[in-house]
Each structure stands twice: as structure tokens, then as C-alpha cells.
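Table S2 (text version). Query chain:
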Amino acid sequence: MHSRHARLRVSVTVAKGDEAPLVSQNTSSQVDLTNLEGALREAQHEIVDQELFSLLVKEAGTLPTASARVSESFIIIDAAENIELKFELVRQSLRVLEANRLI
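Corresponding C-alpha cell output:
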């Protein structure tokens, strides 16, 4: 999913036995895309996120963890017992919809 308008979302999930898992993820601020400065700033963030994701994909196979699942748009790493890290490229339109759902 190396496409435009995608940002990197990082999630940490902690399994808690019979309880619901605890999930935390980064958020990104909304940028005013109607002006040149905002559009350029968002484009820079997208490029950096995609480069970071590409590097993570390359390194995922050499991580000292027992399990790393890699796809075109996400990487899931079992960081420790009951702790999972997920790196995911999320399309901009999907992020906006999710942000609006939280309001």
C-alpha cells in the first residue's frame, strides 16, 4: 500500500487474560490542507511515514522476536508475552473517518 495519502499508525495491544485487551495508538493532528503550507507539511509527513514503514519491513525479518507478520500495509510484532506492536499504513480518508467517529 505504498500510495499517497497514507500515514503510519503505531498500536500497542496488551492482552489481559479474560479481560478486554488494552490498546493504545498514536494520533496525528488534522492539518489544514486548503493552504500550501499545510499541504506541504502533510506531504512531508506522509513521505517520512512511508520511508519509516519501508525500513521496518526490511528489518522485520531480523528482529529478535519469535513472530513478525508482514504484509503490504502492516507489520505485527509479538514484542513480549501478551504484548503486540502493530505498524500500519492507513489511508488519509480512513483516518478522517475514524477521527470523526471518535468525536
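Notes on Table S2: The CA atoms of residues 62 and 90 lie 24 Å apart. Residues 6-102 form one domain.
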